[in-house]
Write a structure and sequence with these properties.
This protein is of the alpha+beta class and 80 residues long. It is built from one helix and five strands.
């Protein structure tokens, strides 16, 4: 089946497999390298940033993190 647009003609195909999603491992924080129970410390000034990054990374990669105030800053643990 073909459809004509003003610029080009596109062919619609069926049964083309979707390739695996590739995630960019460039990250400010070491989330990709953490196993359950691992943690790291960030300065207190970055509290809101690290909480948001941990939540977003966890949702995207099926992981869970928790952040707590600790001596010297905010500590982030991978919990699942």
């Amino acid at each position: 089946m073909k459809y004509r647009t003003e610029v080009e003609t596109y062919r619609i195909t069926y049964s083309v497999p979707i390739p695996e999603k590739i995630y960019n491992l460039r990250t400010k924080y070491p989330f990709p390298f953490m196993s359950v129970g691992h943690s790291f410390l960030v300065p207190r000034a970055k509290e809101q940033s690290i909480r948001s990054c941990a939540r977003d990374y966890g949702k995207t990669h099926d992981m869970k993190f928790t952040c707590r105030v600790a001596p010297g800053g905010i500590r982030v643990w991978r919990i699942a």
